[in-house]
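Continuing the batch. This is chain 6 of the set; chains 1 through 5 are on the previous pages. Same settings as before, nothing changed between runs. Recording input and output for traceability.
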Amino acid sequence: MFKQGISSFGKDINNEDLKGVITVNDYTRTIYHVMSGEFDNLLLMMTRTKDDMLAKKIETFLHAYYYAPSNEEVIKNHDHLLYYIDHALDQVDQTKIKI
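Output for chain 6:
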């Protein structure tokens, strides 16, 4: 992922330090992919995130989007996904959390 490592607040961070870490970018990227309709990238985000609840919310939204018989179910799952992301962003430290 990061070949040379990145610097955060004067401390060098390499790949080993980032294992098991959920970044706020998981949530902001999910919002971006949902709002722009990039559902292929949303599926990739579902498989790559370390947040199991986020992955499950993405899964239920994508299932509803492709297979739901009514638009109301799609809208309901869309709203549940966005509500969860909003809740998660309120709970998370703005830099990262360790699992």
